[in-house]
């Protein structure tokens, strides 16, 4: 049985192939390179890509905001990096949009790294952190109904599809679109295989949380 006491947040997560860590302002150039090179891939699926590309100073300002919210426990945005942190693979989040004891996982992967299982690896890692470090009681993943590739990830990891929210989001052209809501509860997680996933999660001082 997992402890119900939060010990996080995890500032740094090390999975099999990736480093998933809190964004820093120094990541602005690497982030811009990854986003600008992936716009044709991202625009159909993530609303924020419609306003890209943005200049480097806006990237720095956004990353400073992310770090501040992370430190204050308001929201948790992560960068996804190669093992040596020389390249941005994508971005992810353990968001608090749905309540303090609920986490919503979000992610994007830069186009050169698609179809390599990184989104699944990140989701598995954030599930473990969300339940075991943040002590969440429920974790959601919301996917546009047209995004068949992303839908496969929660389905493969044991999430339950709870329904469809009609017209709750907007596509790149501003048109309303439907969103599938998938969720995994704490009891479901404890009975599944993900708690055995090899993973390191570290706090702001570099101390292990798992």
Verbal overview:
The protein has 210 residues and is an alpha+beta fold. The protein has a single domain (12-202), classed as Aminopeptidase (3-Layer(aba) Sandwich). 28% of the residues lie in helices and 30% in strands. It has a nine-stranded mixed sheet, sandwiched between helices. α1 (28-36) crosses α3. It starts with 11 loop residues before the first strand and ends in an 8-residue tail after the last strand.
Q: What's the CATH topology label?
A: Aminopeptidase
Helix percentage range: 25-40%
Distance between the termini: 14 Å
Which radius of gyration do the C-alpha atoms yield?
Answer: 16 Å
- Please mark out the parts with pLDDT under 50 across 5 or more consecutive residues, or reply none: none
Strand content bin: 25-35%
In the residues, how many domains can be counted? 1
CATH architectural category:
3-Layer(aba) Sandwich
Summed over residues and divided by their number, the pLDDT gives a mean of 93
The class by helix and strand makeup works out as: alpha+beta
Strand order of the largest sheet: 7-8-6-5-4-3-2-1-9
- Biggest sheet architecture: 9 strands, mixed
| Shape label | globular
CATH superfamily: Gcn5-related N-acetyltransferase (GNAT)
SSE ordering: EEHHHEEEHEHEEHE
The number of E-state strands comes to 9
Number of helices: 6
CATH class: Alpha Beta
Q: How do the strands and helices of this protein lay out in sequence?
A:
Elements: E1 12-14, E2 18-22, H1 28-36, H2 39-42, H3 56-72, E3 76-82, E4 88-95, E5 102-109, H4 118-132, E6 138-144, H5 148-156, E7 160-170, E8 176-185, H6 186-190, E9 200-202
Parallel strand pairs: 5-6
Antiparallel strand pairs: 1-2, 1-9, 2-3, 3-4, 4-5, 6-8, 7-8
């Amino acid at each position: 049985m997992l402890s119900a006491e939060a010990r996080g947040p995890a500032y740094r997560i090390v999975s099999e192939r990736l480093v998933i860590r809190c964004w820093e302002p120094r990541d602005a150039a690497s982030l811009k390179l990854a986003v600008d090179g992936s716009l044709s891939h991202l625009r159909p699926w993530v609303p924020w890509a419609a306003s890209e590309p943005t200049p480097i100073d806006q990237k720095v300002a956004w990353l400073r905001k992310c770090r501040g919210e992370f430190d204050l426990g308001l929201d948790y945005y992560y960068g996804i990096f190669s093992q040596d942190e020389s390249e941005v693979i994508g971005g992810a989040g353990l968001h608090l949009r749905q309540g303090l004891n609920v986490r919503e996982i979000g992610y994007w992967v830069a186009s050169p790294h698609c179809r390599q299982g990184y989104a699944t690896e990140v989701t598995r890692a954030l599930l473990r952190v969300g339940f075991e470090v943040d002590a969440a009681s429920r974790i959601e993943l919301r996917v546009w109904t047209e995004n068949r590739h992303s839908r496969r990830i929660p389905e493969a990891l044991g999430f339950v599809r709870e329904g469809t929210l009609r017209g709750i989001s907007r596509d790149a052209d501003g048109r309303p679109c439907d969103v599938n809501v998938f969720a995994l509860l704490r009891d479901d997680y404890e009975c599944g295989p993900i708690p055995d996933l090899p993973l390191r999660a570290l706090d702001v001082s570099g101390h292990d949380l798992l």
